[in-house]
Design brief:
This protein has about 200 residues and is mainly α. The chain has two domains: about 70 residues, Helix Hairpins, CATH 1.10.287; about 110 residues, 3-Layer(bab) Sandwich (minor pseudopilin epsh fold). The chain is built from seven helices and three strands. The longest helix is centred in the N-terminal third of the chain and has 34 residues.
Length: about 200
């Protein structure tokens, strides 16, 4: 069973309001948790029926199994991406507290400032998510975009995750996504990101 994780910060942030966080976390994110559990229950029942030859199996055009498996990846990735996103907020945006991550970013992009500018533009180009990840295959940092929850590169561990769906910023900034992305970095907890980076970069395939 998936469980709703509480926010690691007070709901009112600089540029990201309490109302936005309440709707985003308490309703939308919580909805993914509830749906993932519902899908899991249905998959368990269907699995038993399929094994007992009491229900049809899969079909690529349409089948109950196909629909549930599609819903499963969308809901579960919706949970994980939002948990990474919320888990990174509540900081003061000071990247100097992320010694190892800042060094790795600077090595690749020249400086943290260069990276923030590039990542922000990637976030402007995405329809759903902008993600800085540790690519286990490449053994280095990579920036990837996803237009939906289940658009992902396998073998990557997210380090920085920015939700750029309109629900994340429209109450506070209207259509000004750029201002929201600036608020994201202003509230970023670089220390949390640094700990994730150290864990991820220690893994090799």
């Amino acid at each position: 069973m998936y469980e709703i994780k509480p926010l690691p910060f007070d709901k009112e942030l600089d540029g990201i309001s309490k109302k936005t966080n309440e709707i985003h976390h308490d309703k939308l994110y919580a909805g993914y948790v509830n749906k993932a559990n519902e899908v899991g229950d249905e998959l368990g029942k269907l699995r038993d029926e399929i094994v007992a030859d009491k229900a049809p199996g899969g079909n690529t055009t349409f089948s109950k199994l196909r629909g549930l498996k599609l819903g499963e990846t969308f809901a579960v990735n919706g949970i994980y991406l939002h948990e990474w996103f919320f888990g990174l907020l509540g900081g003061n945006g000071d990247y100097k507290k992320a010694t190892e991550l800042s060094a790795a970013i600077s090595e690749k992009w020249g400086s943290v400032e260069n990276f923030i500018k590039y990542f922000s533009e990637c976030a402007m180009a995405a329809r759903g998510w902008a993600v800085l990840a540790w690519d286990l295959h490449e053994g280095r940092l990579k920036q990837y975009n996803g237009d939906a929850h289940d658009h992902a590169v396998w073998g990557c561990i997210p380090i920085l995750v920015c939700d750029v769906y309109e629900h994340a910023y429209f109450i506070d900034h209207g259509s000004d996504r750029k201002a929201y992305i600036e608020a994201f970095f202003k509230n970023l907890n670089w220390e949390t990101a640094n700990e994730m980076f150290k864990k991820a970069s220690a893994i090799s395939l």
